[in-house]
Amino acid sequence: METFLIYSVKTMFVQLLFLLLYEVFFKNEPYFRTNRLFLLSGIVFSLVLPFFPIALATDNFTAVIRLEEFIAYADASSGNITKTSKTNVINWYELVYGIGALCFGLLFIIKIIRLNRLLNRSQQVVLNGTRIFLLEDLTQAFTFMNNIYVSKEQAEESCVIEHEKVHQKQWHSLDLLFLELMKIVFWFNPLLYFYQKRLVEAHEFEADRQTFPKFQNYYYQTLINQALGTKADLPANYWFAPKLIKRRLSMLQQKEKSTKGMSKYLLAIPALAVSVLMLSAGNAPQNTLSETFPKISVSKTNNTSQNALPEVLSKTSV
């Protein structure tokens, strides 16, 4: 469990570094697909980099004498070895982690079951070559994998269908599914929720960018009506999430810049370098007495050999 906790801290470090770069430099850039790839890369690299530490070369040798190793060797010299049982504190960590992972795993299963129920009671139709699943009481149009779910009223609005088709073609739901699985394993990591929020934004911006040219003013008007809270031509749903509307309107007005704007993404290279160096520093090998003496778990005794100290120091001198 200790190894997993250390690994988790390392993944969070890499994720935080990429997320900070995104918030400072890329969040308002109109390269939505690149933003999506950058966010996903941050998560993937955070999972992979801790497995490939690079040992930093050093010319200095430092003998580190751990107190417990010294006592163990001293007691071994005098023949007074008392074994002690391992502490069970780490078992509580495992228990808490297991309960958390179980809860988030159950929540994920519940979501899949609900989605399957929606699929079973939906009416499947084909509109302009696109498979649509109609639901009478659905208030939020959404796409999962290759299926588009809308209400019957929304199915009559072509801009809703076109918007969801972008999500379908770009497989945006795979990103969110990946994050849901990540949240089961790393349920204690708050950074994953920020990544999910930014990915949803990137998905919506990309879908807006590809849908807008086909509808122009109608698309603008619909978003503005939702932002002002006035009656819109389309029903309110997640596709028109109020918190995203202003940013979506703003991002629609931005155009992709020259290659100079794309050069910002080269900042990912030093970010990777910093991650590797920091993780390598944390994995640098140390020369300790464990290479010379076996680790012996002992309890504190009163008859520790007083003559062991000179012998230990003589064996560890350089």
UniProtKB/TrEMBL annotation:
Residue ranges annotated for the Peptidase M56 domain, each copy included: 153-252
Pfam families: Peptidase_M56
Lineage, opening ranks: Bacteria, Pseudomonadati, Bacteroidota, Flavobacteriia, Flavobacteriales
Organism encoding this protein: Capnocytophaga felis
Protein name, per record: Peptidase M56 domain-containing protein
Membrane-spanning segments: 6-25, 37-57, 95-113, 265-284
Keywords of the record: Membrane, Transmembrane, Transmembrane helix
